[in-house]
Each structure stands twice: as structure tokens, then as C-alpha cells.
């Protein structure tokens, strides 16, 4: 066989004097040879790209590292990527991918990009592959830009893949919607939904059931949509969810539907009204509200709506920011799930987190000792003893287990649950029956809650709108007087504290 191959090569050399004719003859002979590699190699050395590709394909099929290495020596970059697939040493394999990427192989550029975590390197290598038309690189590049909140850079790439990729169509639809191109956005959502994109179908469902509403129209619209038992004892806590945009409305609707199905909370006398979609620029929100590193909004435009519809609590879903509860208002962003909502909901009645608080928050909460789910080790016994007495009245005997709430100030604290609860990790989802009983007792006692009226009082006071502040302060007094003796007027310094702020 070897002698026959040599004879073919010798004959070719004598027949053809120029390289072009030689390569043509070698390629032709290779098609009929049982072992074409040596013929293809000679043509490859002569610069025949066709021969290099055919030799590469042959070596790839045979998993032949020898010929792949030879091709790499000629500078044929695709061979480096192929060799990386059969190389056992991960470090060598990674070097081969990098070599292929530098040689302009789109697939290698894409794979090498994914191995880089720094923003600029990944973006540059994905761009190199995307510009060669590699679909995976185009979609990955768009995702990378979206991750770093650069939608203007992602949008052109999404536009290139949206015709065939439902996820790209879905992402592009949101960007078009934000630009005010509502009809085009809806068409993109429909395309994605037709191709079994579940989130797109959910968006279309929301668009069919909700429309943005102005503040002036919100007051009357709510009046016709509130539950029939809104003003009864079954609704001690009356929450109105509000969304500031389309993505936020989708999440608000999702949370609302999950709440309606949540059997854990059905015994509690708290009610959640149908979410409402606020028109653009209804109120100002910021992910770093007043420089406190948390999500917040100026809720003053909602004051008349709160008053007219006897709302005690608000849930505001905004684009981004850290979830927290602040005096009758829960703030969530589009990434916060239903389990986060339930976790934050418990803060409305004073439950404190059971994970380690920051030192500053731990000093505040652990010194006050007002959390209904914790007791603290004192010099002689546990404090407050009222908590233990209350727990024992509900469930006897009560056993105490270490809690991590005050870990960062080395203050021993204890909870009446051996299992991890939803207050330690919202994904745990476990709400002990004892906690539900405590929750209901506190719902019956507005004295331990802070409603949105307190928030509005503070907000108007901070804005030096004294007339409105006085109105909401009086409303706070009225809400407490309905169940408790009339309290003294709260001192300004006390009312500016955010005791329900969660980390």
C-alpha cells in the first residue's frame, strides 16, 4: 500500500509541473485512495485550502491527532479546535481552543469567550464570533449585554436572531415595549408564545387583562375591584399591589395568583386586592432610595387612592432594587419571587429575620426585643417572658432552638422552631403552625403594626407639607383608636425610624 501511494505521488510529480495542476491531481487521486491522508497532506503543504479542509475532515472522522497536529503546524486553525475535543488534558485542550479562536474560528471564539468571566474579554470574543454569523454567539452576546444592563448594545443582536429564536423575540419585545413600540412588541410576544415560550404567553395574558391606569383614574377603578369583604374583620390587613411597568405587572399578577392558591395563609385575616398597573412616571422610584441601599418610591401621588379605598398596606413592584418593608409599604423588584413576598409579608406584623442580621440591624432589633418569633438570653432568664407565655398559650410545651438573628453582635437568641423557617430562608417555605397563630394575633392588634398611613405621614413631613402630614398623622391615630386607647402623638424622631426595614 505504501509503495502504491509513493508511485502515485511520483507519477503526479512527473505529470504536473505546476502546483495548481499537482494539487488538482492529488485531490483527485485522494478520492480513490483507501488512505488519502498522505496525498492530502502534500496538497495541504502546497497551500491548497480544499486539501486542508478534506484532511481535517478525514482526521476528525478518524480522531487522528497526528494529522490534526500537522495541520495546526500549517496554521490551519479549525484543526486546533477539533484536536481540543479529543485531547485528554484540560489545560492543553483550553490552549487549543484559544489557538483556534485567535485563528478566527467562530465556534472556538464562542467557546473561549465563555471561559472568560471578565466583561470586556467575553464581549470582544463573542463579538468576533457573532460577526461571523454564529447564532449561539449572537444570542450569548445579547444576554451578556442585558446582564450588564446595556440593552442598547443587546438590541441589534436580538434583532438578528428574533426571527428564529423565541427567547430572542421575547427579550426584544420587552425592549420594543420600553421604546413605546407597543404593536411591534406585541407581535414579538405572540411569535414567541406561538413557539411555546411560556413567559411570552404569560405576558400576553397580562396584556389582555390589564391596562396602565393614571393616578386620577386609579381611585375609582379600585373601588369597583376590591373584594366584597374588604372592610370586614376578615381583612384586618388590606394590601393593594401596584406595578410600575409591564415586567413588573407580570410579576405582580404572578404573585397575586400564587397568593390566592396558598393554603398556608388562608386562615389569616389579610386580603390582597387585584394588582393595578400604574401609568408611566406615576411616581418616582429609586434602587438606592435616599442613599439607603434599598428600593423605595415617593408614594405621595397615591395618597388619595389610599384614603378613598381604606388601604392599610401597599406592595410596589419596581424594576430593580433590594426587597424591603418600610412602614406599611413592601417594595419588590421583578426578580423577587412569591416566596420573597411571603417573607416580606411577615415583616408587616413585626416578625424578624432568623438569618444573621448586619451588626447595625442586630443591635437595633436585638436590643428592642419586640420580635414575636424570638426570645433573648438575659442575665437571669429569657426575655421577653411575654413571648414564651404567648407561645405556651398556643402550643405546649414550647421548646427553644438557637436562632442566628443576633449572631453578628454575639447576642444569643432563640426561636420556637427546630426546622429552618421561611424567615431564615424564604426558599425554605416552612411556616410553623405556631407562627401562623402568632401572625393572626398580631393582625388583630394594629398597635403592633405600621400602616401606609404612617409612611405617608413621614413622607409628607419630610417634604415639609405640614397640612398633609397632619392629616395622615390623625389617620394613624384613628387606626389605632379603633382597637386601642388613643396614643400620644408620636415624636418626630421616632416616626422617621424604619423599624420594618429588612436587609
TrEMBL record:
Gene3D superfamilies: Tetratricopeptide repeat domain. InterPro entries: TPR-like_helical_dom_sf. This is IgA Peptidase M64. It comes from Marisediminitalea aggregata.
Amino acid at each position: 500500500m505504501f509503495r502504491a501511494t509513493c508511485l502515485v505521488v511520483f507519477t503526479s510529480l512527473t505529470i504536473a509541473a505546476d502546483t495548481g495542476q499537482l494539487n488538482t491531481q492529488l485531490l483527485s487521486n485522494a478520492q480513490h485512495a483507501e488512505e488519502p491522508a498522505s496525498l492530502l497532506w502534500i496538497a495541504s503543504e502546497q497551500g491548497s485550502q480544499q486539501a486542508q479542509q478534506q484532511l481535517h475532515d478525514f482526521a476528525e472522522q478518524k480522531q487522528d491527532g497526528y494529522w490534526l497536529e500537522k495541520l495546526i503546524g500549517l496554521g490551519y486553525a479549525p484543526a486546533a479546535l477539533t484536536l481540543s475535543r479529543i485531547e485528554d488534558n484540560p489545560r492543553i485542550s483550553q490552549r487549543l481552543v484559544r489557538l483556534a479562536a485567535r485563528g478566527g474560528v467562530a465556534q472556538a471564539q464562542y467557546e473561549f469567550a465563555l471561559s472568560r468571566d471578565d466583561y470586556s474579554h467575553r464581549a470582544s470574543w463573542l463579538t468576533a464570533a457573532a460577526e461571523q454569523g454564529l447564532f449561539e454567539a449572537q444570542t450569548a452576546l445579547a444576554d451578556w449585554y442585558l446582564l450588564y444592563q446595556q440593552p442598547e448594545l443587546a438590541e441589534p443582536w436580538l434583532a438578528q436572531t428574533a426571527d428564529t429564536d423565541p427567547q430572542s423575540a421575547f427579550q426584544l419585545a420587552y425592549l420594543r415595549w420600553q421604546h413605546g413600540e407597543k404593536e411591534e412588541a406585541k407581535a414579538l410576544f405572540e411569535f414567541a408564545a406561538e413557539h411555546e415560550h411560556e413567559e411570552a404567553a404569560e405576558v400576553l395574558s397580562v396584556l389582555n387583562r390589564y391596562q396602565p391606569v393614571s393616578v386620577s383614574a386609579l381611585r375609582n377603578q379600585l373601588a369597583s375591584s376590591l373584594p366584597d369583604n374588604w372592610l370586614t374583620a376578615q381583612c384586618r390587613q388590606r394590601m393593594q399591589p401596584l406595578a410600575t411597568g409591564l415586567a413588573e405587572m407580570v410579576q405582580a399578577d404572578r404573585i397575586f395568583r400564587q397568593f390566592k392558591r396558598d393554603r398556608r395563609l388562608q386562615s389569616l385575616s389579610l386580603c390582597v386586592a387585584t394588582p393595578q398597573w400604574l401609568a408611566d412616571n406615576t411616581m418616582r422610584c429609586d434602587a438606592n432610595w435616599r442613599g439607603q441601599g434599598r428600593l423605595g418610591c415617593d408614594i405621595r401621588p397615591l395618597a388619595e387612592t389610599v384614603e378613598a379605598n381604606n388601604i392599610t398596606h401597599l406592595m410596589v413592584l419596581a424594576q430593580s432594587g433590594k426587597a424591603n418593608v418600610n412602614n406599611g409599604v413592601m417594595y419588590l423588584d421583578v426578580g423577587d419571587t412569591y416566596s420573597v413576598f411571603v417573607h416580606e409579608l411577615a415583616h408587616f406584623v413585626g416578625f424578624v429575620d432568623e438569618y444573621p442580621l448586619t451588626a447595625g440591624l442586630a443591635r437595633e432589633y436585638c436590643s428592642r426585643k419586640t420580635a414575636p418569633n424570638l426570645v433573648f438570653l438575659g442575665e437571669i432568664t429569657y426575655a421577653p417572658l411575654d413571648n414564651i407565655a404567648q407561645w405556651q398559650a398556643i402550643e405546649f410545651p414550647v421548646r427553644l432552638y438557637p436562632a442566628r438573628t443576633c449572631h453578628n453582635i454575639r447576642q444569643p437568641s432563640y426561636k420556637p422552631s427546630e426546622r429552618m423557617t421561611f424567615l431564615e430562608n424564604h426558599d425554605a417555605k416552612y411556616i410553623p403552625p405556631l407562627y401562623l397563630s402568632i401572625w393572626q394575633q398580631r393582625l388583630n392588634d394594629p398597635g403592633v403594626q405600621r400602616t401606609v398611613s404612617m409612611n405617608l405621614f413621614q413622607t409628607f413631613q419630610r417634604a415639609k407639607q405640614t397640612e398633609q402630614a397632619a392629616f395622615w398623622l390623625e389617620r394613624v391615630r384613628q387606626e389605632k383608636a379603633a382597637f386601642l386607647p388613643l396614643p400620644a402623638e408620636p415624636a418626630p424622631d421616632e416616626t422617621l425610624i424604619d423599624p420594618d426595614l429588612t436587609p
